[in-house]
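Before relying on records like the one below, remember that each one covers exactly one chain. Contacts with other chains, cofactors or solvent are not represented anywhere in the record.
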Amino acid sequence: MAKELASQLIEQLQNAGVQRIYGIVGDSLNPLVDAVRKTGGSAQGGIDWIHVRHEEAAAFAAGAEAQLTGKLAVCAGSCGPGNLHLMNGLYDANRSGAPVLAIASHIPSVQIGGEFFQETHPDRLFGECSVYSELVSTAEQAPRVMHSAMSHAVGLRGVAVVTLPGDIASLPASAPTPQWRSFAPAALVPASESVAELAEAINHAEKVAIFAGAGVEGAHAEVIALAERLNAPIGHSLRGKDFIQYENPYDIGMTGLLGYGAAAEGIAGADLLILLGTDFPYDQFLPETRTAQVDRAPEHLGRRTDVDITVHGDVLPTLQALMPLVSAKEKSKFLNQMLKKHDRLMNKSVGAYTHKAEALVPIHPEYAASLLDEIADEDAIFTADTGMCNVWTARYINPLGTRRLIGSYLHGSMANALPQAIGAQAAHPARQVISVSGDGGLSMLLGELITAAAHQLPVKVVVFNNSTLGMVKLEMLVDGLADFGVDVPDTNYAAIATAMGIHAIRVTDPADIAPAYRAAFAHQGPALVEIITDPNALSLPPKIKGSQVLGFATAMSKVVLNKGAGEAVSMARSNLRNIPRS
């Protein structure tokens, strides 16, 4: 009996090292899922089918796996609504540079173009969130398209989409299978004249600051060595936190609305700012100063702020070529000032909520986050929901050089943390994986708790439940708007998780947080810790503008008029200790 095309394509994925596919079965996808079944699963050296509850979660899970492993990860959706549901997670994966292959099954090929039931045009729809998108029209063409898709995803570090009509997947295989050879992306070495120009600028500058992004991955020692030679403080973006914050005596924190520490002042006070591997999008937080930028993506150079020196290359080979050309700077006054300011801000502002917070009710979320940092494994993987959970993890979770922290940092989607944790746990079954979820994000894809329970993935979900969309609330207040439409009814997520067969604890007393963490982390299967936190605890940026103060004050007057003075006083009490101090 001839081999079905679906089995041929699944064998191609096996040959490329794919171990699992995330998705939901459906009629047009059935031939492919049946081919997965025939592999016998990972227990027999085959591919596992990870049945999620929403295809968006499948894409998030695959994106997380790909980000953490650097290897190809796969998700799939049935025709029409099924593969459209993939789209949000694929946008996130593509923007994060995750090598993901998405299989979008399609209506019967003879029906395409006739407005058939569930008809869409996935080969067109996925164009904006992928580096490759192609429709399979024949069985002979299919294996070459699959090979090209895998090559694009791995080589260009993004999403590749293969649109596959269900009837074609059931046809006999009719073409040879292209041989797959894995490859490691090459390092991009900069032009020597660009490096020389950067060295000259550094040697002429009195005060140099470094702002590091995710592009410094693998170059930690070299960045630290450059900072040491130049007496340069190092600020970082949220995506750069994993790769530069640990074991860094020159660290001055993070800038941006979620930022902390002295990074904002440190990069603004320099004569020369060096952007290393960052495409930090918030230009309002980038100073108007002489700037150099190093990036492997030429389209990133100068698109966020005016740049005086551009270096097209990876950070590691750039710094290796640069170091012999730069002279050591003797003066350290600027560095020492920024380090002292950073220490002061960390102790008086960021540390304010965690100081003597053991008995404060409602629970301060910062205190819960600081305990999570203390109790979690040294090699734990954290996923963080967009919004306030990003703030608490950015400010209180220490990467240690062994941990990982990922989120929807470039796409900014809600509900990313739990499905990303599922992908992280599937790829790293022996590591502790912690989803730091907001109640808003968790409730959006709540069904994925069933996925964790069904596959017995030992994901630990820490829910910061403040019964409000905290980040949106802050945005409204800063814009001078009364907070409206952001509050949700109190929901017992621990009870819901328990009903799903998940070990769950609800915490209302700060004294119970640490024991709850330890019990959940010791549990062999999935576990959830729900922490009832102060809904009035807000994230304040490290540098406040007059317009923000005016907006906040205006909004407070509206809160008083609409809700009474009591709520405004309560909000002030919750945040007074956290106002940044100079």
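The chain has 24 helices and 18 strands.
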